[in-house]
Amino acid sequence: MNEKELREELNKNVRIAKLFQAWMIDMTTGMHVGDFLIRNGFTHVAIYGYGLLGKALYSVLVSEGIEDLYVIDRDDQKWDWHSNAMFYKPQDIANMEHVDAVIITPITYSDDIYKMLASFFTCPIFLLEDLV
Hints:
Radius of gyration: 15 Å
Shape: globular
Strand content: 15-25%
Helix content: 40-55%
Number of domains: 1
Strand order of the largest sheet: 3-2-1-4-5
Number of helices: 5
Structural class: alpha/beta
Mean pLDDT: 91
Order of helices and strands: HHEHEEEHEH
CATH architecture: 3-Layer(aba) Sandwich
């Protein structure tokens, strides 16, 4: 990695750490992403990205009562076949059943991801960063 790539990776990791910190503070004060989703009628939720943040979000949402979860990730090596989620590659999202909301978990390229998802979904699309 060159210096620019190292700086970008460091910035990404700092943003992820800050997001986790804010998320944990929210959870300890009773603010839960799952509560927000249920309160707004979002029970069929798609998570875009199944890296560190996506896996954490999946576990939290399951524990908070969101049972109809879909996961979208281009890397099927990340897929967790032991979960109850339905996994899709981005090119297959047109085949997804009813989705009430989509949550984008990647910190980088979220604008491009949002635009791509908005071309397929009419439901609300949230950035995880904005929900915590």
